[in-house]
User: Which sequence fits this backbone?
């Protein structure tokens, strides 16, 4: 799928988690719901770090373009080193390593460890990166029309404000993980979810997605998981724009309303 649909699906997924948490009497404070939805929206773009033309490659200027090139080469090297004879030959790393459950889990664990061990500045960095990505995905027309610096300033200001709000007692720094020293441990959850939602979205397209790697399916290590071919669509097609995008908006709205107790 394209960047905006990925981001919308990520936000909708976290709002759905908020509704589920409320149903099981573990409601999210509103800052956790809002911040988590934005992080998840941003994280839903991150697996495309292996694609030089993806939304994320433009999000942080030359730095993100260089990083995408490095991740593309790394992903391709891992694919070549681990492919079976049944897996097709490739010329690049797109939709390989960064589109797997293992990558999603590592990103989430790494983010949680950084947030807990790195203190406020690590939390601010995580919020900044994912808020910039969320703006690029959810407000892509406005982001394209404005300067990168303006988007970065918006991300930095938003990160600072949200970190201050979360630190207030009862606002969710210790949501879900309540033990001593576990503040912000939950920040890894929307990052894992966003990456997995991205992979599921790509699995619905014509090419499928090897989300199960390194678990083999049949004779393939990089099996392109997806529904039957007649149910798949091309990225950017009318199915994505006219069906899935409105569905994500509706489901996200319903999830948020339920999570906040309005339904």
Assistant:
């Amino acid at each position: 799928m394209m960047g905006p649909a990925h981001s919308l699906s990520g936000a909708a997924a976290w709002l759905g988690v908020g509704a589920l948490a409320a149903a099981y009497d573990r409601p999210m404070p509103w800052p956790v719901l809002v911040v988590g939805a934005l992080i998840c929206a941003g994280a839903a773009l991150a697996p495309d770090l292996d694609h030089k033309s993806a939304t994320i490659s433009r999000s942080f200027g030359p730095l993100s373009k260089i990083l995408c090139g490095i991740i593309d080469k790394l992903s391709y090297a891992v694919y070549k080193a681990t492919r079976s004879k049944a897996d097709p030959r490739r010329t690049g790393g797109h939709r390989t390593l960064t589109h797997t459950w293992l990558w999603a889990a590592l990103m989430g664990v790494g983010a949680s460890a950084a947030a807990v061990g790195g203190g406020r500045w690590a939390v601010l960095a995580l919020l900044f990166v994912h808020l910039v990505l969320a703006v690029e995905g959810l407000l892509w027309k406005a982001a394209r029309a404005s300067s990168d610096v303006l988007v970065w300033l918006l991300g930095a200001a938003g990160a600072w404000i949200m970190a201050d709000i979360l630190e207030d007692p009862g606002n969710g720094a210790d949501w879900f993980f309540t033990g001593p020293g576990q503040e912000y441990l939950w920040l890894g959850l929307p990052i894992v979810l966003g990456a997995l939602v991205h992979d599921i979205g790509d699995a619905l397209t014509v090419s499928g997605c090897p989300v199960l790697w390194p678990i083999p399916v049949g004779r393939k290590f990089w099996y392109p998981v997806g529904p039957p071919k007649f149910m798949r669509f091309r990225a950017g097609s009318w199915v994505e724009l006219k069906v899935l995008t409105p569905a994500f908006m509706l489901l996200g709205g319903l999830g948020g309303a339920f999570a906040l107790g309005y339904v």
About this structure: The two ends are 31 Å apart (CA to CA). The helical segments are 3-23, 30-43, 62-82, 101-138, 140-145, 148-167, 188-203, 238-259.
